[in-house]
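Throughout our pipeline, every protein is held as a single compact record rather than as scattered files. This encoding replaces a full spatial description with a residue-level series of whole-number codes. The remainder of this section carries one protein's record, kept here as part of the documentation.
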Amino acid sequence: MKKDKLSIIVVNYNTKELLRECLYSIIKDVKGISCETIVVDNSSNDGSAEMVEKYFPDVKLIANDSNLGFAKANNQGIKVSKGNYILLLNSDTVILPNSLEKLLNFIENHPRVGVVSPALLNPDLTPQPFIHELPNLWRTFLHFFNFKRLAVSPQKRHFLAKLLKPIADKNINAYLACYRTRLEPKSVEMVNGTCFLIRKQVIDQVGLLDEEIFLYCEDADWCKRIKEAGWDIYFLPNIKIIHYGGESIKKAFGLVSLARYKGTLYYYKKHKNKISVLTLRIIAISGLSFKLLSLIIKYLFSERKNKESIKKSMNLHTEVIHFFLNSNRFT
């Protein structure tokens, strides 16, 4: 059986038109590369699977009967793949010309690099923020209290970093660094799972994605295991792809938002001590309660037409707070 150089795995959930655009961009960019493309559809109800069968007969399709989550669906694709390199690619991405060749060239020419990832662009070609540090309590605190809203301009970000430098210099800089423009390849702690090129050799060594995580933090968990096994992870900002971002999330906002926090707690329980887990809960409950209070005030003073959407957000925050108060096991 022929051994493909590259296996591209695209997990899809109700993003038919974006998936079509993604697959066309792959076809245009893989010329000259020995490649297979595998689509794992998580029980979409928008005709995604049928579209793949009709318009992309050379694509290997795995059609699930239910939504198995991001990690388990990618693992399905990995298990049937034949490539020396595996590219996990979101369905809401567009591959720009020569991106795949450049990613492959870098990882092939750096034998200790196990994973590489490109920069992500918005559809208008402006850069998207990136986080390349593994989760820790300081950055989790900054996330739950939404410090980025205080840092919407370079001047405000500089002021915030300077103000908090004595107590959290490294973490503040890492948190705000996602807005900086980089041109040179950089060794990092983790890369985003949106476009994640990994050696099959690395997967054989460290294992598959952790299927206990439905969505979110599965990339952080995998990267931590990969780094601990002695492999380097590189972010390559000179290589770019377009990422629409969050399209599957919009289809099931409540489910996905809760999954985000479940994934975060699971990651802490798996990789941190009990004090860190307890501190995470306190941070999460405090930050979410503050947001809930803000939503309640907003609800009271909003026009009737806006109250329903605000109420949905209030219910979601209440559900997540309840989760952090009552979860005493891996969930």
Q: What stands out?
A: The longest strand covers residues 232-243. Residues 137-179 form one domain. Residues 274-300 form the longest helix (27 residues).
